[in-house]
Structures are given as structure tokens and as C-alpha cells.
# Entry
Amino acid sequence: MDALYDTASGYTAIFAHAAPNLLDISASTNTDIYVGDITDTSALIVLSGAPQVSGGILALHPYLIAYGNNGLVSWSAAGDPTDWVPVAAGPGEASVTAHKIVAALHTRGGAGNSPSALLWSLDSVIRMSYVGGDPVFSFDTISDESSILSAQSVIEYDGIYYWCGLDRFLLYNGVVREVPNDLNLNWFFDNLNYDQRQKVFAIKVPRFGEIWWCFPFGDATECTHAVIYNVREGTWYDTKLPNSGRTNGQFPRVFQYPLMIGSTSINSIKTLGSLLAGASYVDGTYYNVATTNTTSIAGSGATVNVTVAGNVVTAVTLVMTGADIQLVMF
# Structure
């Protein structure tokens, strides 16, 4: 997801893109880009005229960038993310490498070359720089002998870009370099659940000078451990994540502390159907039942009575977590 001020519409728009890349970072399925007013609560809609892509999106102000298969990079007209028709000195596209582009971040372009971005394909790192005129952007390959473990493993720390490759940690500060790690490099790669590599994500904690790469340990399917690089001290350490692990996070931009999302295992989800306010549903024998937004519930073998005054319950979902059964209403 990303945000961009839409000068054509006069509001800040939020954009979202999702593709089925979880089990295969190189998956080539193209999907839509979605858009909506960032202050609105309604569902996002398909961004009209935008290309379908398999990699992702980047708000490179005032352009919206989309990237994916065969090194394809597309960009909108300046300030108008609804205009994607290739025209001279306007929106366009370019294939800049042979392999899929999986990640992108802003970077400093310098006078005459901003806005600029770094692009990570499956085997290369590419710099994208504004040049104006008919090309709009130029592209140069920083390294065509690189790798990337996960689309979420790239992070910027004080103008230097760090990411996790397939067998080492790397940085870009004008050139691509390895980040030396003789403390827990093998521990990380030997214990990573490689089938879940796309869940590896990076988060920084500037207060302590740290970059965390959270990863699924052993046969875990969510990130349960983290390997940590301390930029200030130039050293590495690691930790186990609390509870059932974490699925994503953001460094503190507004709030005092970093924000991290927890993980809860769900054995199965069963949709019971649609109920109107005051209706009831009976489905076998339930034990250890916890409820949300319900006024009454009996014991085992219960009838679940749902009453929502003044509202209509449009769906009731039974979420089974271990031996407990929780009734969740949407």
C-alpha cells in the first residue's frame, strides 16, 4: 500500500496491490491496483486505466509506479494516477531487466534526477532516475549479480538501504556491499523456513540503532524469531519474538514505540450463514464458548442468541482456535 496526492482529483489517494506471491516470489500472476480517498471508509475500487502487475506499486511523487514481470516498470502521468496512456513526456513504461521486479523504495536522486527510486529484481538492483523529456525516467543497473530473499526484507536506514539476500545480508550506499556477519549468519539461514521466505520482513528501531529481520524459524509458518543488526555498534544478535510471533511491523513515525502485528493460529473457519437481528442458530455441541457482541449464550449444546439493537447482523462466523470456539460478528 502507498499514498499519493492526486492533483487531478484534489485529494490524497491510498493505493493497494496484492498478488499471489506468498509461496513463490517469482509468481507471474498479474492483478489489479486499487484506489480510494485516504480519509474515506468505503471499500477501495480498481484504479481505472492502470496496468495489472505482479510485483507491486510505489508512490514516487508525483508519479505512481507499478512493476512486475519481465522487468516491466510503468508510471502514471505526473500528479494523475488515473492517466496511464503512454504518450510523449507523460506516462510510459520500460522493461529494465529480464526478471521480475519484486521491491522498490525511494532514493535520493540529486539535482535534476529526482524523484528517483531503487528497484530490486530477482537478480539485480536497478536505479530509476527522473530525466524529463520523452523518456521521463532513465534506468541503470547497480548490480546484476545480486539476490533478494523477500519483497519485505528491504529497509532504508539513514539513507542506506539494507536487505536480506539468499545467503547473506547486503546494503546499498552508492554501491552494493555485503554486511559482514560472522555471529549468526549460518544460524539464520540454517533455521529459516525457506517455504515461508516471503513472510520475512524488516523493521528498524532507530532509538537503539537496530534493524530487525523477523523470520519463521524451523517449521513455523509465521515469523517467530528475529536476527538483528545494530548499525551503531556494528554487531549482530537475535531474539525469539513473543507470543505466537509477529506478521509485520512499522518503525515509530508518530507513536512512541514501533508497531508490530501479532499472530494467532486458526485451525479452521466455518461460516454459519446470514442472520437477522434477534435470530438464532444451532449447530451441534459447543464447549468453552467465548462471544463477541452477543447478549446471551447458553452452555454446552447451546443455542447462540444474537441480538443487535437497531442493526442487522449480516454475517456470523465461527472461528475455532484449539479447544475454544469464538463467535465473531462482522
